[in-house]
Amino acid sequence: GSYYVLIADGDSMIDAGINDGDMVIVRRTATANYGQIIVALDENNRNTLKRYEYDKKQKRPYLHPENDKYDDIYSEKISIQGVAEKVIKDLI
């Protein structure tokens, strides 16, 4: 498969063990299963790393940050760029 490295920026995924500056190995794909951590394009065409979830009441997918200080992201269109496979951390 095709992979790339994304450098995590921010603290929205800290409860999933992904911290600012971590290297995330991402498998390039346009599809994902609910519950997986994905790279998606946000409404400003920037990459965002979030958990891909499905809201049964609203009957649509959304992006869930793994940090309680952030809200879930509901977007008309979620463009999946890849699925996170591994995290590489500095041991400082």
Summarize the structure.
0% of the residues lie in helices and 43% in strands.
Number of helical segments with 4 or more residues: 0
Instruction: Describe the strand arrangement of the main beta sheet, using strand numbers.
Output: 1-2-6-3-4-5
Topology order in helix (H) and strand (E) letters = EEEEEE
Oligomer: single chain
What fraction, in percent, of the residue positions are helical?
under 10%
Distance between the termini: 31 Å
Please identify the structural class as seen in this structure.
mainly beta
What would you report as the Rg, rounded to the nearest angstrom? 13 Å
- CA-based shape: globular
Strand percentage: 35-45%
Global mean pLDDT = 94
Structure, explained:
By secondary structure, the protein is an all-beta fold. 0% of the residues lie in helices and 43% in strands. It has strands at residues 3-7, 23-28, 37-41, 47-55, 60-64, 79-88. A six-stranded antiparallel beta sheet has the order 1-2-6-3-4-5, with no helix packed on it. A hairpin with a 5-residue loop joins strand 3 and strand 4 (47-55). It is globular and about 45 Å long.
Please tag this protein with its features.
92 residues, mainly beta, six-stranded antiparallel sheet, 0% helix, globular
